[in-house]
Amino acid sequence: MRAPRGAMPLLVAAAATVFTGCAHRPGPGVPAGSAPAGNLAAVADPGIDYRDPARVCQGFAAALYRRDTTSDRGPTGAYRRAAAAYGSVELIAAVAGQPDGRDPDWGQWAAHRAVADPTASGLSVGDGQPADTSVDAYRAAVVTVTPIGRDGWRGPTARTTVYCTLRASDGRWRVAGYNLGAAPPAEATP
After folding, report:
1. Is residue 6 within 8 Å of 97, Cβ to Cβ?
2. pLDDT greater than 80 at residue 123
């Protein structure tokens, strides 16, 4: 599993790498193809309780890898949608300023008109996690995704961990930054 291209400067700047969470299979949220390439505005996923930082991280993680090659203009569509639906104002601004990126898998996915509808579940990393405050929280989610082509093609299943740094404003949590890491073995996740 790769980070969306163009995301690397943001990933390097993102903070915190240890967190906790609970299982969640996100609903459709923001549909594929709906995030513009330029200016982004915050939107809400009606299936997410923004008062729960674990749910916000899991929703963000799944949205980061939810793609539809027939409606997305390119591989960064999911990245932009994830930021718009779950990101803080600062994350949205950083993503809006990123150029469209490249993904070595996009060509193959597009040739098969593939769609990816990932699942995300919370990951507890134990005592290494910083304590939450009233405005900062840290969570992690394991994302599992298999691209499926409209022609019957199935790409390889990939798993990754998304570590979220979240900030609260008016009692609602948003992802302020994130890092990607290797997912634990399948039997180690809840």
Report:
1. no
2. yes
